[in-house]
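Example for tutorial group B:
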């Protein structure tokens, strides 16, 4: 790491990676594609996933991190752009480069600060964490966020240090640009094929309800324990010409498999990740979640939302929230009985009930950066720093 600081770095070569180098997704993907298509920058995606490299090596400029060429790319690039931290790439070869974090969420309900979480450990635990993953503690030169309001939600900000906020720059996020482009075309071929496979009797005019539950460490938690009644829920969906897709976190695979046979014909469970979830978000007529940060992305569509406050007291003991849950821009429900009522109301009113609340939250979170020009602003900012 120290020696890599003496490497001669090319200002016209920018490296991109995300999610510990495992996936091609999120803000980094959308910004990488913008830079590749609209500038003369040598944009390179670095991955630690050999299967991902094989899949995309003919489509995009991608290299495998654990190769001689991958190491050369890292030690010769002036700009390193990531979502989670230096472990998105191989951290030993990045000293002397300009480190830019695009993050992976717009504005989360729960606290996402690595710095805050680390500060709350005792001394022994801090030493242990540092020895296991020392490069998590190398802060990026800049963290890009959606607005001034969302500065407090970054991963690496030490909030009590006033000068630290200069590192956090409100330029907007590449994902909001992508979602703005998708507003005109809600159902891609992926979605059409996916929905017809999941719901063989679905009509193209049926409304899609997308429920994204957050993973919880409590293995006893089950979203269907809150007065779920298959007959009543399916009747309600049928009355509204709607289908519900519940997309579980990959860690909840056992729960997903156990629920398949008992939910009814208008409710299906999946475990999509990455860009496929983003496409589902674009297609959904109604979005439901408990604590997923994707509500802040869904605000861009100005469509109705419902917040499932299931076992709330237990969850807040597990994770700290950074927002007042009851102030969120949608109906808040505590079980499936209330959920059915809220779905009826939201679909009947076409989402007008919380329209003013959604606008208030959208204005706070984006403050005008939801104009489809975030990638352009970020690109110009990095060039000005260089």
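The residue assignment follows.
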């Amino acid at each position: 790491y120290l020696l890599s600081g003496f490497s001669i770095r090319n200002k016209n070569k920018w490296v991109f990676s995300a999610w510990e180098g495992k996936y091609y997704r999120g803000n980094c993907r959308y910004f990488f594609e913008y830079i590749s298509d609209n500038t003369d920058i040598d944009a390179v995606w670095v991955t630690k996933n050999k299967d991902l490299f094989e899949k995309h090596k003919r489509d995009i400029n991608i290299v495998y991190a654990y190769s001689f060429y991958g190491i050369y790319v890292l030690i010769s690039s002036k700009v390193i752009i990531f979502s989670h931290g230096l472990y998105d790439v191989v951290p030993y070869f990045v000293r002397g480069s300009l480190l830019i974090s695009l993050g992976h969420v717009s504005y989360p309900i729960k606290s996402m600060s690595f710095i805050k979480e680390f500060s709350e450990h005792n001394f022994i635990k801090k030493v242990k964490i540092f020895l296991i993953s020392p490069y998590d503690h190398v802060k990026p030169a800049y963290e890009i966020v959606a607005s001034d309001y969302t500065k407090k939600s970054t991963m690496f900000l030490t909030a009590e240090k006033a000068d630290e906020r200069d590192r956090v720059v409100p330029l907007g996020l590449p994902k909001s640009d992508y979602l703005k482009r998708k507003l005109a075309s809600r159902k891609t071929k992926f979605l059409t094929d996916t929905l017809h496979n999941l719901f063989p009797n679905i009509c193209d005019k049926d409304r899609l309800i997308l429920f994204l539950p957050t993973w919880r460490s409590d293995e006893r938690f089950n979203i269907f324990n809150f007065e779920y009644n298959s007959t009543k829920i399916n009747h309600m969906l049928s009355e509204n010409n709607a289908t519900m897709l519940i997309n579980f976190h990959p860690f909840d695979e056992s729960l997903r498999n156990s629920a398949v046979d008992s939910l009814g014909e208008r409710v299906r469970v999946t475990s999509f990740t990455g860009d496929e979830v983003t496409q589902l978000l674009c297609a959904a007529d109604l979005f439901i979640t408990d604590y997923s940060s994707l509500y802040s992305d869904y605000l861009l569509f100005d469509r109705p939302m419902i917040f499932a406050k299931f076992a709330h007291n237990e969850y807040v003991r597990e994770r700290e929230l950074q927002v007042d849950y009851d102030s969120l821009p949608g109906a808040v429900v505590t079980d499936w009985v209330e959920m059915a009522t809220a779905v009826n109301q939201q679909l009947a009113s076409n989402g007008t009930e919380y329209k003013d609340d959604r606008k208030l939250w959208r204005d706070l979170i984006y403050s005008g950066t939801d104009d489809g020009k975030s990638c352009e602003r970020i690109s110009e900012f990095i060039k000005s720093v260089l």
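The two ends are 21 Å apart (CA to CA). Compare this with the pattern of hydrophobic and polar residues in the output above.
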